[in-house]
Amino acid sequence: MSFSVDQPFRWMDSGVYRSLPLEPLILDEALTSGMREESSPIIHLWVYDKALFLGRRDARLPHLEDALRQFGQDGFGCVLRSSGGACVPLDSGVLNMACLVPDRTLSIDSFFAFVARLLGVGLREYGSLQFGEVAGSYCAGEYDFSLHGKKIGGMAQRRTRFGSILQLCINVDEQPRGRWMEEFYRVAGLQEMEQHRPIPTIDGSTVGSIAGLTGKQVSVDDVKSRLQQAISKEWPVVSEPFAVPAAYVQEADTHLTKRLQLFSYTAEELAAPDWHLPEQYN
Fold first, then answer.
1. What is the rounded average pLDDT of the residues 263-281?
2. Cβ neighbours of residue 54 under 8 Å, at least 6 residues apart?
3. pLDDT beyond 60 at 2
4. Catalytic amino acids?
5. What's the predicted TM-score (pTM) here?
6. How far apart are CA 134 and CA 189, in angstroms?
7. Is the pLDDT of residue 4 over 80?
8. Which terminus of the chain has a smaller tally of CB atoms within 10 A, N or C?
9. First and final CA of the chain: distance in angstroms?
10. Quick one: pLDDT band at residue 105, thresholds 50, 70, 90?
């Protein structure tokens, strides 16, 4: 393998978010900013309850504003993220994990392959993961991971100014996430698009969860614990309280919202009668 870790992972859990959905992405960006001074790799865990994490491709949907307004009324916030892929629904039963390394030069395939190995070890108690696109799933891609043929998560990568981030989500408990995405893309007008579709099609039955596919009572906290225990047997891991300097957070916020023009709204904002998408996305 062309990528390896020679320093301990700093294992950080920043908890559950319910305010602006961009917040945990800002913190990932801020953590990589800190790598200009501290070169250790980081595993950052977090949960957002609940929101649609849109990909850049979704901005082309003809009725995106209508779909987001409807989902806001159903309690979902939204964010346009900077990493690759298409829309992913997050809720309190989805564990998000970011692997951050102080290297901007490693190949995309090497980074994906390393984190796939990390996941295979961390989740092996629940079964053998398969990696590869699950056709018909939301945000389908080469680095989907599945159990028993159903997608339970996916990975997206991006370079930052000071390192690389690979962000992934793991569906832990059973929720109708596939059905939510069928409805989202129906309202947003996916079938009206002849070109530049964010996904080819959507079949909610292709998506599952660890709990639903194993028949076990499994919580996000259970999966966090199992991941840390398993990973630390094969790679050095040091638990740390989550901390990042406020200056890096502000710098990351400015970079994502001003330079990259990402948007983020709470469910309450989306449901407001006078809410509209920013002009460049409408």
1. 95
2. 78, 79, 80, 81, 86, 87
3. no
4. 139
5. 0.95
6. 22
7. no
8. N
9. 44
10. confident
